[in-house]
Amino acid sequence: MKYSVVLVDDQTLLRQGFRMILEAEDDLEVIGEAGDGQKAIDLALHLRPNVVAMDIRMPGVDGIEATRRIIEADPRIRVLVLTTFDLDEYAFGALRAGASGFLLKDVQPSAFVAAIRSVASGDAVISPRMTRRLLEEFSYAFAQNEGGDDQSRLSVLTDRERDVFLAVAAGLSNFEIGEKLFVSETTVKSHVGRILTKLQLRDRVQIVILAYELGLRRPGVVPVQDEKATSVRGPLTPTAGTDPVRARAKDD
């Protein structure tokens, strides 16, 4: 399968560099480029690519707002946010806007290519530099929401679906959840699909975020890793099941 990509960055040289990297791969095709957020929205909704590689700081509409508008208009389009700014508010804003990943632009070309493939296939990708701060951010939500009424949002789930919800939030794969709950992997996939539908969530990353915001997951210790993109499948995958922010976006 060949994945289509739209590149969004206000620096022409960076877009050209990204294009060269991606077009060296047989399964990736750059079908458009944009230099600002509004053009990115227009182009993405016209071309309907598999992935939009999105810069954050651009003239006019920024990358976070562009991401939000694209996802609202067509949730099938995946957005991978790229930035030179290692700042919390950008990562949090991007993920909450619906991005399927957040990377710093200094990743190795091979990591960038693998991240595009991961996001296109429904996985999530988050820079390891951001995982600890993501956990710290959601630990504040735990303190604010522990025992709160917001957990009533989960009342639409059956007991088994709630078990699966918590297992996904813990970063377990479908296979691992099946072993833990003594059900088949196919059954787990069905449960995950129903959970996403009932809670109106887009993917497994949003399950993780919701669990932290509702105080259902406490942050754990994040192991030290090298600076490669964190995802679920392929060459970017570190030790599985240790960090819920590494959860699969869609373990299909």
Written description of the protein model:
α3 (63-73) links the parallel β3 (51-55) and β4 (78-83). It contains ten helices and six strands. Helices cover 46% and strands 12% of the residues. With 252 residues, it is an alpha/beta fold. The relative contact order is 0.13. The protein has a six-stranded parallel sheet, with helices on both faces. The protein has two domains: 3-121, Response regulator (Rossmann fold); 132-220 and 241-246, 3-Layer(aba) Sandwich (Rossmann fold), CATH 3.40.50. The longest helix is centred in the middle third of the chain and has 18 residues, at 128-145.
What's this model, at a glance?
By secondary structure, the protein is α/β, with parallel strands linked by helices. The protein contains 10 helices and 6 strands.
Structure keywords:
252 residues, alpha/beta, Rossmann fold, globular, disordered C terminus
Layout of strands and helices, then pairs:
Blueprint: E1 3-8, H1 12-23, E2 28-34, H2 37-47, E3 51-55, H3 63-73, E4 78-83, H4 88-96, E5 101-104, H5 109-120, E6 125-126, H6 128-145, H7 159-169, H8 174-181, H9 185-199, H10 204-213
Parallel strand pairs: 1-2, 1-3, 3-4, 4-5, 5-6
Helix pairs in contact: 2-3, 3-4, 7-9, 7-10, 8-9
Report the helical percentage: 40-55%
Look up the CATH topology of the largest domain. Rossmann fold
CATH architectural arrangement of the largest domain: 3-Layer(aba) Sandwich
Please outline the major beta sheet. 6 strands, parallel
The rounded distance between the terminal residues' Cα atoms is 16 Å
Strand order of the largest sheet: 2-1-3-4-5-6
Radius of gyration: 18 Å
Decide which structural class fits the backbone: alpha/beta
Number of domains: 2
Number of strands: 6
Spans of at least 5 consecutive residues whose pLDDT stays below 50 are 145-149, 219-250
CATH class of the largest domain: Alpha Beta
Query: What's the CATH H-level superfamily name of the largest domain?
Result: Response regulator
Number of helices: 10
- Name the beta content range: 5-15%
**What string, H for helix and E for strand, traces the elements in order?**
EHEHEHEHEHEHHHHH
